[in-house]
């Protein structure tokens, strides 16, 4: 008798498998029989592997027979194969009706026969909205247009028509503007015009009227007397009038509604106008005053009677003082509403238009005092150098005001952070919510005019989100669904269904936090919460 066995090790993804060759025993009469064989395929699926060993030693008298070893039990866990998500899978994405009509050149009636799905709305004014499967919309567009090439041609045609429509719209707007210029604008007073009858708009309009009158009378006084200080005062009033007209333009532009090109609105137009105003004061007011003062020092000339100049300066002091009081009262009222002090409100440039009027009128009152003092010294001593020094003093005062305006408005336009106390309150509010585990990278930017943009990365507690979802479900029905799961396909379908619903619940929690932040903090207009 002769026996033999061979052992092989085959490569496998999950575990090594031993392949035992078939063992055959030959008897003395020439007959043979199979003792056992192993199937490698069965072992790869997790079945029990039996290793059979048989042997007889003919040389030994005892003829020892080896006892078989215990079978090895191997359990292989079923693993869901990793799915490759290609274009076919992304066709299950949703698309809104507006995008379906615009992108696929369809009509609203074409969407009536498609499957409609209700989804959670990201907007506060609507709870749900209707979406469509992108694959259904694409199939419908091919049905309507016949081929992708025809659809591409229609898109191109509509794009050209849109460009032509915009050109015609611009031309019509131009013609309408020319018509209004020729026949007059008979439209009723708009809300933008109403802004100039209250608040900062009222302050700016009062300042424009008063400074315009001051410029006219100071210019007459300079022509009559030839005083360098009076010339500086006239230039100062002219600069104030022009700058405040620019502020009025900034106020009217800041009231424009946001559009696709400017989604956050035009609020910063007030800061831009104030910045240009500060540069204008520096160049027009301070520059010309310094120039005239230096010319007076280099080429002095006698000053005529200053009686009319004193009278005009006195009237200017009263008018500028009245405008200054209007600006001070407006700033006090606004600062009290924001819970800030008068100094904090001015330094932080909360209302740039009123700040410009305040500082310009304060500089005007001081410059009137400086000009009157220097003109008085000139009339007493007969020395024209005092008058030129007064012009230099007025220019220095205007330069200081313009530097302050340029600095504060530049800081506002760069996007500075809000006060640390306010940022701490917003952070504590988020962290106190049960659904929030932690927040990171918090930023709160002052966009101007009491508008704040808040951004934070939020680590949500998945257990709380899941409990929030389960509270809205029928637990008994959910348990029945779990008990019916028997295969991997059923398990995948169950997890995909409820996983998508849990993600929608997370989105609803984000919307809730954003809405609560805006309600508790009216200054917060835009909230961006990123999910970690």
Automatic annotation (TrEMBL):
<feature type="transmembrane region" description="Helical">
    <location>
        <begin position="203"/>
        <end position="224"/>
    </location>
</feature>
<keyword id="KW-0862">Zinc</keyword>
<feature type="transmembrane region" description="Helical">
    <location>
        <begin position="307"/>
        <end position="328"/>
    </location>
</feature>
<dbReference type="GO" id="GO:0015297">
    <property type="term" value="F:antiporter activity"/>
</dbReference>
<dbReference type="GO" id="GO:0010821">
    <property type="term" value="P:regulation of mitochondrion organization"/>
</dbReference>
<keyword id="KW-0256">Endoplasmic reticulum</keyword>
<keyword id="KW-0813">Transport</keyword>
<dbReference type="InterPro" id="IPR037129">
    <property type="entry name" value="XPA_sf"/>
</dbReference>
<keyword id="KW-1133">Transmembrane helix</keyword>
<keyword id="KW-0539">Nucleus</keyword>
<feature type="transmembrane region" description="Helical">
    <location>
        <begin position="362"/>
        <end position="382"/>
    </location>
</feature>
<dbReference type="Pfam" id="PF01545">
    <property type="entry name" value="Cation_efflux"/>
</dbReference>
<keyword id="KW-0805">Transcription regulation</keyword>
<keyword id="KW-0496">Mitochondrion</keyword>
<keyword id="KW-0050">Antiport</keyword>
<dbReference type="GO" id="GO:0031966">
    <property type="term" value="C:mitochondrial membrane"/>
</dbReference>
<dbReference type="GO" id="GO:0016922">
    <property type="term" value="F:nuclear receptor binding"/>
</dbReference>
<dbReference type="GO" id="GO:0006882">
    <property type="term" value="P:intracellular zinc ion homeostasis"/>
</dbReference>
<keyword id="KW-0812">Transmembrane</keyword>
<keyword id="KW-0804">Transcription</keyword>
<protein>
    <recommendedName>
        <fullName>Proton-coupled zinc antiporter SLC30A9, mitochondrial</fullName>
    </recommendedName>
</protein>
<dbReference type="GO" id="GO:0003713">
    <property type="term" value="F:transcription coactivator activity"/>
</dbReference>
<keyword id="KW-0864">Zinc transport</keyword>
<dbReference type="InterPro" id="IPR002524">
    <property type="entry name" value="Cation_efflux"/>
</dbReference>
<dbReference type="GO" id="GO:0045944">
    <property type="term" value="P:positive regulation of transcription by RNA polymerase II"/>
</dbReference>
<comment type="similarity">
    <text>Belongs to the cation diffusion facilitator (CDF) transporter (TC 2.A.4) family. SLC30A subfamily.</text>
</comment>
<dbReference type="GO" id="GO:0005385">
    <property type="term" value="F:zinc ion transmembrane transporter activity"/>
</dbReference>
<dbReference type="GO" id="GO:0031410">
    <property type="term" value="C:cytoplasmic vesicle"/>
</dbReference>
<dbReference type="GO" id="GO:0005856">
    <property type="term" value="C:cytoskeleton"/>
</dbReference>
<dbReference type="InterPro" id="IPR027469">
    <property type="entry name" value="Cation_efflux_TMD_sf"/>
</dbReference>
<dbReference type="GO" id="GO:0005783">
    <property type="term" value="C:endoplasmic reticulum"/>
</dbReference>
<feature type="region of interest" description="Disordered">
    <location>
        <begin position="52"/>
        <end position="71"/>
    </location>
</feature>
<feature type="transmembrane region" description="Helical">
    <location>
        <begin position="388"/>
        <end position="407"/>
    </location>
</feature>
<keyword id="KW-0406">Ion transport</keyword>
<dbReference type="InterPro" id="IPR009061">
    <property type="entry name" value="DNA-bd_dom_put_sf"/>
</dbReference>
<dbReference type="InterPro" id="IPR040177">
    <property type="entry name" value="SLC30A9"/>
</dbReference>
<feature type="transmembrane region" description="Helical">
    <location>
        <begin position="271"/>
        <end position="295"/>
    </location>
</feature>
<keyword id="KW-0472">Membrane</keyword>
<feature type="compositionally biased region" description="Polar residues">
    <location>
        <begin position="55"/>
        <end position="70"/>
    </location>
</feature>
<dbReference type="GO" id="GO:0003682">
    <property type="term" value="F:chromatin binding"/>
</dbReference>
<feature type="domain" description="Cation efflux protein transmembrane">
    <location>
        <begin position="204"/>
        <end position="414"/>
    </location>
</feature>
<dbReference type="GO" id="GO:0005634">
    <property type="term" value="C:nucleus"/>
</dbReference>
């Amino acid at each position: 008798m002769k026996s033999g066995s061979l052992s092989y090790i085959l490569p496998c993804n999950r575990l090594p498998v031993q392949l035992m060759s078939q063992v055959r025993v030959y008897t003395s009469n020439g007959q043979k029989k199979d003792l056992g064989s192993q199937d490698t395929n069965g072992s790869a699926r997790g079945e029990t592997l039996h290793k059979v060993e048989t042997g007889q030693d003919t040389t030994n008298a005892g003829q020892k027979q080896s006892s078989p070893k215990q079978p090895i039990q191997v359990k292989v866990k079923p693993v869901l194969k990793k799915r490759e998500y290609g274009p076919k899978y992304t066709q299950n994405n949703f698309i809104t009706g507006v995008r379906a009509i615009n992108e696929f050149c369809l009509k609203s009636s074409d969407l009536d026969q498609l499957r409609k799905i209700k989804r959670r709305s990201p907007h506060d004014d609507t709870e749900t909205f209707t979406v469509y499967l992108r694959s259904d919309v694409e199939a419908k567009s091919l049905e309507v247009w016949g081929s992708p090439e025809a659809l591409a041609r229609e898109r191109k045609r509509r794009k050209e028509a849109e460009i032509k429509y915009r050109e015609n719209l611009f031309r019509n707007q131009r013609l309408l503007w020319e018509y209004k210029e020729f026949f007059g604008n008979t439209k009723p007073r708009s809300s933008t015009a109403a802004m100039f009858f209250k608040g900062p708009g009222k302050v700016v309009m009062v300042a424009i009227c008063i400074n315009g009158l001051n410029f006219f009378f100071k210019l007459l006084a300079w022509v009559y007397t030839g005083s360098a200080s009076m010339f500086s005062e006239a230039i100062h009033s002219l600069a104030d009038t022009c700058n405040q007209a620019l502020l009025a333009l900034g106020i009217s532009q800041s009231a424009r509604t946001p559009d696709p090109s400017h989604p956050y609105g035009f609020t910063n137009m007030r800061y831009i106008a104030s910045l240009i105003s500060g540069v204008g004061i520096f160049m027009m007011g301070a520059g010309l005053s310094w120039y005239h003062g230096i010319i007076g020092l280099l080429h002095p000339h006698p000053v005529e009677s200053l009686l009319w100049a004193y009278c005009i300066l006195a009237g200017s002091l009263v008018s500028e003082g009245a405008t200054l009081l209007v600006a001070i009262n407006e700033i006090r009222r606004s600062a009290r509403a924001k819970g800030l002090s008068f100094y904090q409100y001015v330094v932080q440039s909360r209302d740039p238009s009123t700040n410009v009027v305040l500082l310009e009128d304060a500089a005007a009152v001081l410059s009137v005092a400086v000009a009157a003092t220097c003109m008085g010294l000139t009339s007493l001593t007969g020395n024209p150098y005092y008058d030129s020094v007064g012009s230099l003093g007025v220019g220095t005062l205007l330069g200081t005001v313009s530097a302050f305006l340029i600095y504060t408005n530049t800081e506002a336009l760069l996007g500075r952070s809000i006060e640390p106390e306010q940022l701490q309150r917003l952070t504590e509010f988020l962290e106190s919510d049960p659904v929030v585990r932690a927040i990171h990278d918090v930023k709160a930017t002052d966009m101007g005019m009491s508008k704040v943009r808040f951004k934070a990365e939020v680590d949500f507690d998945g257990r709380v989100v899941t409990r929030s979802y389960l509270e809205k479900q029928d637990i008994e029905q959910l348990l029945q669904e779990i008990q019916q799961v028997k295969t991997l396909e059923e398990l995948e379908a169950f997890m995909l269904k409820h996983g998508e619903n849990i993600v929608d619940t997370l989105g609803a929690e984000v919307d809730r936090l954003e809405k609560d932040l805006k309600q508790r903090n009216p200054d917060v207009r835009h909230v961006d919460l990123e999910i970690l």
